[in-house]
User: Which sequence fits this backbone?
């Protein structure tokens, strides 16, 4: 018998979703050919978050709609042959300004991201693209952002700088004016034999020098020191971030992916997800995501688009 994620916390993401007011975001939904991906997009539409453009094999999308019992009448449908072509067309729609966000449907993450990072697509910026989970769990009193557990496998220092800045930008978009950023490692001590501790120290100095803006960084910090005031008191650590982190920056993809899934399966967390660093936000949902998680991921994209429009 396999375990499954527990139910989402009551009222998960209500605050984030309520902040996402205004007109819906035109969103290229790439290859929504199964019940979960199509219904998730339509639930976000019904919540007033996105205006979906369905990109994929039209017959398969219509079959998924019939199987799901949902009505796609009136929605724009872009017919392409297969998932690879759908990813390329979704990127083209975003690059041309016909879509303001991209949403992953029933295709592999690497297939979608390959089309988005292709320089010919015109979606790359000077910033490294990275993924952020936004987690809500009864075990923690506020939303917890965690990065990067989905895109960058073993990021170097400069990549981590962008990963941190992307997460800070998202924190601002959801209403955290000066997020507390914990750079995670296995210890709070700087150890030359442990690269993540050296990177953490360097990132903190980069923030001091203005190379990272808008947040308060500390690290290296072990996971317990980042989120537990009791652990901070027991170990005698003095830090404005320890015990109260808004953002957790993990050393690599494996550790981030494990943390997110452990919180989901063992601590009752709900997890929304978004990719930043491209010209448009990329809503990166999982096949196992609940309806609330899919809708919340769309709310994140809407808040990011609204923030960029307000800044321009």
Assistant:
């Amino acid at each position: 018998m396999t375990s499954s994620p527990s139910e989402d916390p009551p009222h998960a993401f209500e605050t984030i979703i309520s902040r996402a007011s205004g007109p819906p975001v035109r969103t290229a939904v790439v290859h929504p050919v199964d019940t979960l991906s199509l219904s998730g997009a339509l639930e976000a539409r019904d919540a007033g978050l996105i205006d979906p453009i369905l990109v994929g094999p039209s017959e398969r999308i219509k079959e998924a709609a019939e199987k799901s019992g949902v009505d796609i009448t009136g929605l724009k449908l872009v017919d392409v042959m297969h998932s690879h072509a759908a990813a390329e067309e979704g990127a083209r729609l975003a690059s041309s300004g016909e879509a303001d966000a991209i949403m992953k449907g029933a295709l592999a993450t690497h297939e979608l991201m390959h089309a988005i990072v292709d320089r010919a697509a015109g979606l790359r910026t000077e910033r490294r693209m990275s993924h952020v989970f936004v987690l809500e769990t009864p075990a923690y009193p506020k939303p917890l952002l965690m990065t990067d557990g989905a895109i960058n496998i073993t990021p170097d220092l400069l990549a981590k700088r962008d990963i941190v800045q992307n997460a800070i930008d998202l924190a601002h978009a959801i209403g955290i004016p000066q997020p507390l950023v914990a750079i995670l490692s296995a210890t709070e001590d700087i150890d030359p034999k442990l690269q993540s501790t050296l990177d953490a120290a360097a990132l903190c100095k980069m923030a001091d020098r203005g190379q990272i803006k808008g947040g308060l960084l500390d690290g290296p910090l072990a996971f317990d020191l980042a989120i537990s005031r009791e652990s901070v008191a027991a170990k005698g650590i003095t830090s404005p971030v320890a015990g109260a982190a808004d953002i957790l920056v993990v050393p690599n993809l494996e550790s981030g992916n494990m943390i997110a899934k452990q919180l989901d399966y063992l601590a009752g967390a709900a997890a929304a997800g978004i990719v930043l660093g491209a010209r448009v936000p990329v809503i990166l949902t999982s096949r196992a995501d609940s309806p609330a998680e899919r809708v919340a991921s769309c709310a994140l994209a809407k808040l990011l688009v609204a923030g960029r429009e307000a800044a321009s």
Remarks:
- The CA atoms of residues 169 and 214 lie 8 Å apart.
